[in-house]
Amino acid sequence: MNTNEHIVSSFDRDLESIQAGIMKMGGLVEDSIHKSVLALDTRDPELADLVRAGDAAIDALETQVNEEAARILALRSPTASDLRTVLSVFRVSTNLERIGDYSKNIAKRSHAVMAQPPIEGATASLRRMAREVELMLKDVLDAYIQRDLGLAEDVRERDLEIDQIYSALFREYLTFMMEDPRSITACMHLHFMAKNIERMGDHVTSIAEQVVYLVTGSMPEDIRPKQDVISEASNKS
Length: 237
Prior knowledge:
The protein is mainly alpha-helical. The chain is built from seven helices and no strands.
């Protein structure tokens, strides 16, 4: 192998390494989403604490991946598609870290909900919403590695369903609170959890937009449709 071939091979390994870090980080975030909602559903404070403690590993990976990406920028001077790959790593890792933070917030609020009497049926839609975001995250990570533009666009469109579930939950929790004032504290926490999950969906969609950028060289031109939850609730009240 000549010198140029060695440099190219080494550079490819560097790119593979930072993308492998992204996938590892994504796996931890997927697990965090799943366990945070499971802890709420099963009223398991120890599992909720594990989720909160596990966020440190996600943060550490973000730092590691970003440092490796910065080193590549400094030493390799990548061009064109390779530069897009390196830049996308910074953005994807940031979005994954924020999703992990929202998952940690859900686990933290679970303790407050567990301290209140259970509300029958109050977590079913929340579980569904979290599961949909979890599946979106899995698909967008696949799209990222495979450079699958169609799958990335599909994930972007699915974010609207997350907004719709959140809108329905917003009205559902208002109904619970009006029918039984004793449920107000728990429903307020559940509402904030639902908002955290809705924000997770936004960050997953941002990752999908990075895939579009990777494949096409530009960000999507169309604006994602977002559902105005407060206005809709007001119009139907």
